[in-house]
Amino acid sequence: MNYFEELGIDSRVVANLAAIGLTEPTPIQTRAIPAALDGRDVMGLAQTGTGKTAAFGLPLVTKLLEIGRRPEPKTCRALILAPTRELATQITDNLQKFALKTPVRTFRVVGGASLNAQAQRLASGIDILVATPGRLIDLLERKALKLNEVRYLVLDEADQMLDIGFIHALRQIARLLPPKRQTMLFSATMPKLMDEIAAAYLTNPIRVQVSPPGKVADKIDQGVHFVNQGDKAKLLADYIAKHPGELALVFGRTKHGSDKLMKLLDTWGFSAGAIHGNKSQGQRERTLQAFRNGELKVLVATDVAARGIDIPDVRHVYNYDLPNVPENYVHRIGRTARAGKAGRAVAFCAPAEFGELKAIEKVMKADIPVIGGNAPSGAEANAAAKEAKDAKGRGGKGRPQQRNDGGQKARPAKRPSRRPRRAKAA
397 versus 124: which is more confidently predicted? Predict the structure, then answer.
């Protein structure tokens, strides 16, 4: 008997898993699946790349197979909320593989696609709906969908939904859901606002934690290279050139900066692409597919656009710009060393980013080994940070509020004892 069948997964689903090479559950799957099949609300905490999608997807498909009749028009039986288009696509692809040759149907609704086409597809009802919060609200406001038949709710990468300002959208959606339902929440980190989300959505949940929040995969070889901001591009090119033919994911802080870096790498002879919120859905999907196929060797991305990238062959992650939110470092480097493979993560730290580096190490409760350059003194770091802040202040009135994946403005969540962050576009 297959290990998944021993956990209680439907035999038809188990056969599909065997066909794609999944025969042994990961720790998060071993602990979450039995609780989910028992009907318990689940709060799952695990680092990226540990198989969270199967942890909620397999029991979900199994329980839907037990219903035995079609869903009502304009309804869904299971709703999965994800922060980005890429993650929603990844979840949908996996669920369709799990449910192959069964009556369970999965549909994805995200920004960047036709609202009319999505509404038409929902008219006859769907078993599992995977959605970004903004686009879901768009469809609800058009009365193309009702949530009164939702039996199962999943919040995936809930911490990222909070970070990009979806808290208000989540509150709005929560009011429309039936109180009698099973809810599963999965996250890699535990920001303070997660307690509010858990209280609003979960009832007496079982907590499943297979690694401490902030812990990274054991097979990721990390390092930090201290470098002046203006020398980062050449340093990145040197690193990439050392590993020709291997896939590298590069994280930039802004959309404009990511595009500029991608074009520079392209002129230097590297096969590079970029994904961020200013790209259309079609552009993002084509670029990701080219990266997945190995046609592109370097992908430059912003935090939100890269969430949900599940490409096992990514060997290197470069933090070209350190993230403002320290927890995002864990998500970034979690794009490598997936599916049991090894990977390397290198952070480029300019003097003005020294504070971000220390915040990251505090979250991880570990120092990142220094592999190049010299750390700035405290005075140098403070002076560089002040200069960068002053330069940003001279740059104008600031950026206009940007739009998230769902097509409506994401409002920043209130956070205790600090100013709220500006919502970031996916």
Answer: 124
Residue at a domain's end among 209, 232, 266: 209
The CATH number covering residue 281 comes to 3.40.50.300
pLDDT at 307: 66
Mark whether 253 and 162 lie in a shared domain: no
CA atoms within 13 A of residue 63's CA, in its CB half-sphere: 21
CA distance 131 to 82: 6
Which residues have CB under 8 Å from 213's CB, separation 6+? 45, 187, 188, 189, 190, 327
Q: How many structural domains comprise the chain?
A: 2
- Cβ count near 250 (within 10 Å): 27
Q: Return the closest-CA partner of residue 375 out of 349, 356, 394.
A: 349
Helix (H, G, I), strand (E, B) or coil at 19: helix
Give the pLDDT confidence score for residue 210 in this predicted structure. 80
Tell me which of 97 and 47 has the higher pLDDT.
97
**Model pTM?**
0.69
Query: Are 37 and 109 contained in the same domain?
Result: yes
Confidence of residue 401 (pLDDT cuts 50, 70, 90): very low
- Alpha-carbon separation of residue 124 from 74, 111, 119 (angstroms): 6, 21, 10
For residue 43, what are the domain limits?
Answer: 3-209
Query: How far apart are alpha carbons 47 and 212 in whole angstroms?
Result: 8
